[in-house]
Amino acid sequence: MTRQITRRQSQMLLPYRQIKRRSTTDWQYGYNYDDKKFLKYFRSRTGIQVGLERKRDLSHFLLTDNKADHWLRTSKNYRYMKSKRMVPFGQDREDTIRWHKILRDKLQLWWKKYQKENEPRKIKRRK
């Protein structure tokens, strides 16, 4: 009985480990954040709405710029939407950075799938 439980628990931890490995400090992603069709495709597959935020410039910066994680850790201009108070340094910001890393990885994964589905098919002709 305990053997079955440990197997289930180890399978549940697997996706987190994969995300942690893919998210490096010097990341390079190839997804096109400005492609409306891709963002619609991403929402239909994952249920995550990206690209219609109130502060689209900030969202674009956080998901496409290499310096975004550093800015989140150090900026005093990073504030809550409703209260306009600065987000405290520490755990709250680290959670936000983790969320953005996961979101970037998901965007990249679905971008590759989107490109495969939308690439023109090659016609093989018989000889």
Describe, in plain words, how this protein is organized in 3D.
This protein has 127 residues and is mostly helical. It is 60% helix and 0% strand. It has a domain at 33-117. The model is unreliable at 7-17 (pLDDT under 50). The N and C termini lie far apart (60 Å).
Keyword list:
5 helices; mainly alpha; 60% helix
How far is it from the N-terminal to the C-terminal residue, by CA? 60 Å
Rg, nearest Å:
19 Å
Structural class: mainly alpha
The oligomeric status of these chains comes to single chain
Major beta-sheet overview = none
DSSP strand count: 0
Number of helices: 5
Order of helices and strands: HHHHH
Kindly state the mean pLDDT as a whole number?
79
Strand content: under 5%
* Fraction of helical residues: 55-70%
Which stretches are poorly predicted, pLDDT < 50 over at least 5 residues?
7-17
Identify the overall geometry. elongated
Lay out the secondary structure:
Layout: H1 2-22, H2 36-46, H3 56-64, H4 68-74, H5 91-118
How do you describe this structure in short?
This protein has 5 helices and no strands.
